[in-house]
Every structure is written in structure tokens, then in C-alpha cells.
Amino acid sequence: MKARRISPFLLLAAGWLASITPAAGADEPAEVSLWPEPGRGNLVGGLRGMRAVFEGGVLQLAADLPPPASAAYSWASLPAPVGGWPLGRRATVEANVSNTGGGEVDFMLWVVGESGWDAVPAVAKLGPGETRRLSCRLRETFPDGTPKIDPARVSEVRLMVRGRFRSPVRLELRGLVARGEEPVWTPPANRVPVPPVTDESPAPGRRVRIRLEGDPAGGPYAVLHLPEDWRPGVRLPLIVEYPGNIFFVPGCYSTGLPEQCVIGAGLTRGRGAICLALPFVDRAAGVIAEGGWGVPDDTAAYAVAMVEHVVREFAADPANVVLTGFSRGALACGFIGLRDERIAALWKGFHACQHYDGDGWNGATEAGALERARRFRGRAVFQTDNSRAKFQRVMDAMSVPVTWADSGLGAHATAMFLDDRPSTQALRRWFDDLVAAP
């Protein structure tokens, strides 16, 4: 009997979890500091619109007035150390935050999951001179009880200022710790583990950033996820996915980047199909558009070129390409995916989650959606958490069978695709039937 290949990622994850999760009943300190030990490298791993200085157990953050075109979020990211933080049995991550500047600050403290599920927040409006103790609940759930993060797989703590502030921001963060005690973390049954995104070479089971030939290291990229059973030269279906907008509110953590895409991973459970997460791009600026369409023609052309690249280099089956997306990405199925005849010819089917072309956002009018719908050459459409009444006219113009499903998650997120709820099982059956059809 041939031995079943075990994913190196699963082995690594199991070993990591065992190493950082103490046995039940083991003595533990009342709290664990999340500040780095001396000599363990830089504290801050990512800055946007902020400066950071860590000294004497205090993290000082500063942000000056942004230009008018600046994004509505500024942040500093504190990455987890190699091996992760020991949070598998902790209840909260907490910190004291002081506003030492002259204006009110809309502040958000995020604990971000590594596996593409979501993040847990604590938020506060801090007046000048005000100090608050913020606490992120590591076992927080979506409205239906689905866990938001795996506390044993946290990638970073993100300190964020939201909105275009009117005076320079000055903040101080003290006492960043994990506290409390919970039972040993147990993932929900059959929860799909999503590998972290890296810059490694593509290989079975990995999610990696890839670029088109000629694109610079700092330019647009896609995220390629080869399934565990991928083999060179073996034709497999391809799931192409678009992310939502950059959008951070207490109930939604969305970066607007391809790393956020997990629908394909949940749909396939990591086997039997290649997954490709695409960006929205602006070629003249040489950037990924975290919000909006980028330049729509650039975004469509990038999609065609990247799909052709994955077909050529990784044996994706050009006759079995399915487009999916969440929020902005769901609108993009029609607004970008049917923009012209060339890109429309790629798709065998569409799956859209929480929005669709024609709802009026950013130029996606119903009149335009009806015109684009007539370019669809696929076989079927699946709609998750969308209104049949709102989009039926556009679906009728596509002239294919449409399946409607309600996930029950109760939130603007994609976590529903990583478990075995009825709507996700129906989507998997739909996909299997679609790619099996001649």
C-alpha cells in the first residue's frame, strides 16, 4: 500500500502547537509579556504613516498630518517572534494606550490571526491626555459562534489609527501582555488550515507570492496556492479569487491584499485544484490598489496575463477556471471578470460572496452589469449571502443556473468557507460538479 503523503505544513503546525501549548493544569504566570526580549531583533515589523520608538518598556508612536490622498489608516505592526507567542490558553491581549497628542484619536488594537480567518479588536476614541486599558478577547467569535482566530496561531499585533486626523498623533503603549486562562485551544471540527503566505518558491501545500516577468520586487503580485496533490504536468482546475477592500472596523478586518483570500482554500480543502489570489492594480503607479478597482483595464489585463502564466507554468486546466471573490472581489466577478471578451472567455463559473456587480458601488451600476452579464460564457453561478431579489435581473441576463445560499455567519467575512457548514458543503458540491462537466 502506498503511504499517504503528509503535508510538511501540517507537521510543522502540529509541532509548533505542541511546543507552545502547555499541558492542562500546568502552572503558568498570571500574564505573559509580548514585548521582545533583549537581542531578539526589531520590535516593529511594519509601519504605515507612523514612526515608532521602543525604549524603557514604552512604545512611542507618532504620525504627522497625512496628505489629502493618504489612506484612511495608519499603523504599526508588532510581529510574533519565531515560534509564535504562547497564547493557546490565554484569554486576552491587553495594553495601556495613552494619547499624548493634541487631538482626539480613533485607535484600534488588533490581534491578527495567521491562518486567514480574521482578527480580534479593541477600539477606543482617546481624547488628549487620556489613557485607556484596551483588551482583545482571543476567544471572540462571529455572531453564529464561529471563532475569529486560532490564538495559538497569531501573526502580529497591529496598532492602528483610523481616519484622517486633524493634528499630529502622539501615542504611548505600555504593558502589552497576554492574560487570563482558557482551556487548551481546540480548532472546530474539520476546520480547514490555511498556510501562511511566504516568498518561497512554489511547491505543493505552499501559499506564495508570485509576479509576472518584468514586474519589480516592490510591484504588484499574486498569491499562488498549489494543492498538496499537485504534480508537474498534471492538469488541475484553477480557482481565481479577488479580495475585498481595505476596511477596518470592529466587525471586519480586511487588508485589500491577495493574502486575505481564503475562499479557494476552503472550497478545495487544499487538494485537487490550484488557487490564485489576484490584486487590483494601477500600472502607472506600479502598485496594488488596496481599495477600489485600481485602473480597471489594468486589473483585467493583469488577470489575463497571470491566469495564462499559471496555466503555462503550473499546468492549470484552461477549460476549468472559476472566478470567486468577497465583497469588492464579488463585485469584480462581473465588473472586472466580464470587462471585455478576452477576460470573459476565461471563466467556467462564478462564485460571489456578499455583493455582486450591479449594486451601484464605485460605478458598478445595474445597467452596466446587465451589459457585462451578456459576455458570460460559463456554465453556472453560485451566490453566497447575496439577495436574490437584488441581483435576479443580472443573473437572468447571464442565462445560466444560479444557486443561492445563506452562510449564517452573520458577519462581513470569509470564515464560513473554512468549515463544513451546509452552505460551504453546497458550494463544494457545486464546484466539483462544475469542473467535472465536459
Describe the structure in your own words.
This protein has eight helices and 24 strands. The protein is α+β, with helices and mostly antiparallel strands and 438 residues long. It folds into two domains: 150 residues, Jelly Rolls (Sandwich); 240 residues, Alpha/Beta hydrolase fold, catalytic domain (Rossmann fold, 3-Layer(aba) Sandwich), CATH 3.40.50. β22, α6 and β23 form a beta-alpha-beta unit. The N terminus is likely disordered.
Outline of the structure:
The protein has eight helices and 24 strands. The chain has helices at 8-20, 263-268, 296-314, 328-335, 341-344, 366-373, 388-398, 422-436, and strands at 31-33, 46-48, 51-55, 58-63, 73-79, 92-99, 105-113, 119-126, 131-137, 154-162, 169-179, 197-198, 207-210, 222-225, 236-242, 246-249, 252-255, 274-277, 281-282, 287-288, 316-326, 349-353, 380-384, 402-405.
